[in-house]
Write a structure and sequence with these properties.
The complex is a heterodimer of chains A (291) and B (160). Chain A is an alpha+beta fold and 291 residues long. In chain A, helix 10 packs antiparallel against helix 11. The longest helix of chain A has 26 residues. Chain B contains five helices and five strands. In chain B, helix 2 crosses helix 5. Chain B is of the alpha+beta class and 160 residues long. Helix content of chain B is 31%, strand content 17%. At the A-B interface, strand 1, helix 2, strand 3 and helix 6 of A face strand 4, helix 3 and helix 4 of B. Bound molecules: flavin-adenine dinucleotide (FAD) and FE2/S2 (inorganic) cluster (2 copies).
Chain lengths: 291, 160
Amino acid sequence: MKPAPFEYAAPESVEEVLELLGEHGEEAKVLAGGQSLGPLLNMRLATPGVLVDINRVEGLSYLRSGDDVLAVGALARQRSIERSISIPRRWPLLHQAAPYIGHVAIRNRGTICGSLAHADPAAELPAVAVALGARLRIRGARGEREVEAGDFFVNYMTTDLAPDELLVEARFPPLPPRTGTSWKEVARRHGDFALVGVAAVVTLARDGRCERVRLVYTGVAPTPFEAGDAEEMLSGESPTQELFGEAAERAARDCEPGSDVHASAAYRRHLVRVLTKRALGEAVRRAREEG
Amino acid sequence: MERRRTIRLTVNGTRYEREVEVRKTLADFLRYDLGLKGTHVGCEHGVCGACTVMLGDASVRSCILYAVQADGQEVLTVEGLSSPEGPLHPLQQAFHEHHGLQCGFCTPGFLMSALELLAEKQNPGEEEIREALSGNLCRCTGYEGIVEAVRAADRVWNRS
Ligand SMILES: Cc1cc2nc3c(=O)[nH]c(=O)nc-3n(C[C@H](O)[C@H](O)[C@H](O)COP(=O)(O)OP(=O)(O)OC[C@H]3O[C@@H](n4cnc5c(N)ncnc54)[C@H](O)[C@@H]3O)c2cc1C
Ligand code: FES
Ligand code: FES
């Protein structure tokens, strides 16, 4: 048997989930898609006493884009991003990044909220959520609260979630007009975790200058890295290749990549330079097409 | 909450009821409880794709799914693609004809991933095929024969 023994519960309502989490605290783990937790359990890197499987909870699998906000329920699978009709049009960054997450069979099970809760420093969706200014709805015994994605990621695989809390929904606001987005990533093989990935969100003013730029990276810090200086030097300026190059230098200088078996810090900085330029170029082109 | 649980599920059209330890993976359940050893187990952490089966109409890694999670659902494994007496499934036939396998360890997983792709899509391009199969590792073939087999199966498999 691969995982260490655990007790298993498959509650059918969010209330029951919260009750179980409240009762067992640190001992309990939520099981969503299981695509990160499963490997950890099999390798016995995680040995929770209780698994609270949320897959039987009714009404959590939704992707709702009725109003202006995209609401993503705790059980919406990563694969559903690729199947959605409205997401490619209205939240294109999600659609651009999703195919880079593992493989089809992984995305069939893995959930969007699970990826955020897991907070792997090389994952795509945390960086995307920060770049898009997503808001996360969290429920616990003490009630409900909402946290901005930018404040949710605390450290390496650590979020603002308490052990007895459930991330029930991620909410993605609409993009402003004349906005283009791009996801660029380098991994060793298709489907592997990113060495470096970058989300670029560029809003152009009517005169064609950059009004607002977001550059958020995965793989170069314990949490999604926001290249604030680079963003600032672009805003108010006309987008040019030269400027993109300078912004890329700035981002490469400011990020804090580590070295590991996959790549050295120097190589990761090199990728930040290359990918930033490409992502900005593509985002600006798309913003022009929008406007 | 419990450590053992009785589950009812359908595998390859046959209904089963079994009591299982809750920590038993679906892969181990298929192999040891049902004796369906066509589903192979390589890495046991989701990476190699050898254990891929269909759960409902979606491909899943059975090594990181627990048997209890398949309770009430339908599973299709490689044994369900064709009957021992009947002709091979068009995908199996194509793998056979186009050198889509050598040792065969990875083959059941490739067949399930390819099945999902072709069930959803007619005439996929080579890039699409490669991407759909990127989650399955093969140590022997070099993949060319596998991609060729999927293209061939696409042409002859009548999905209707
Ligand atoms: C071979 C392979 C390749 C992969 N490649 C990539 C990749 O390239 N990029 C990438 O980003 N990911 C990758 N993944 C991970 C995958 O995206 C996971 O689906 C994701 O990280 C976690 O989502 P999950 O729904 O599977 O969560 P689970 O594995 O079920 O849970 C992960 C953690 O989050 C907690 N959790 C989950 N949901 C909630 C919730 N709603 N509220 C509170 N806590 C919760 C769990 O308790 C657990 O601690 C890969 C996985 C595999 C097996
Ligand atoms: S054995 Fe399941 S993916 Fe390798
Ligand atoms: S045929 Fe041997 S691993 Fe693929």
